[in-house]
Amino acid sequence: MSSIELPPIVQTGAPVLRARAIEVAPERISSPEFQSLLATMIATMRAAPGVGLAAPQIGIPWRVIVLEDDEERISGTSEKERAERGRVPFPTRVFINPTLRLIGEQTELFFEGCLSVAGYAALVERAHEVEVSGLDEQGKLQVWRVTGWPARILQHEVDHLNGTLYIDRMKTRSFTTTEQARENFSGRPIAEIVEQLKIEG
Ligand code: ZN
After folding, report:
1. Is 10 exposed, middle or buried (0-12, 13-18, 19+ CB in 10 A)?
2. What residues does each domain of the chain span?
3. Which of 15, 32, 108, 189 has the most neighbouring CB atoms within 10 Å?
4. Which CATH superfamily is domain 15-115+126-168 in?
5. For 52-89, how does the pLDDT look when each residue is reduced to its tens digit (9 = 90+)?
6. What's the 187 CA to ligand 1 centre distance in angstroms?
7. pLDDT single digits (tens) 163-181
8. What are the catalytic residues?
9. H helix runs in the chain, sequence order
10. 83 C-alpha vs ligand 1 centroid, how far in Å?
11. CA of 156 to the centre of ligand 1 (A)
């Protein structure tokens, strides 16, 4: 494996996480500099480890996201949790200048975290199904329609490009350290947690 020096992941409070990221000129995509940015983003996501990363999270204010989920990262969750969340492995995806369309009325409520809000998690309501379109790493238009966990990751990452963090959308009473989440909420039905925490609507 080639050694890429990984940039630190920018933490909440940094202005770059609250700004609207800018469009990438398509002719720029094939340049070595841009390709190197993509490699750095993918390596940073894997090292974290995370299932998605947006360019602003490494301080680059451009509309670029990468996402990926595999058996290894999923292995920490039970069979039941995987099924409930619709968490399925998928290969590395790059979206440049993505646009996201929420499909249907169905939503899901699950715990979600962010590499830029390290050490915390909260319940966040997300659309069950989305369609994303954008350019891939070769500058070709691609459209991806997904449900479940990949749909959640996409909504989270595209939010980053608009200066939005999950803490803006979370059920505030569910905000927890990841340690407390493991201790108190792991493996429990969401409906029960919602009732216990007196979360409304
Ligand atoms: Zn995030």
Report:
1. middle
2. 15-115+126-168
3. 108
4. Peptide deformylase (3.90.45.10)
5. 999 999 999 999 999 999 888 888 888 888 998 999 89
6. 23
7. 999 999 999 999 999 999 9
8. 157
9. 32-47, 71-74, 79-85, 148-161, 178-184, 190-196
10. 23
11. 6
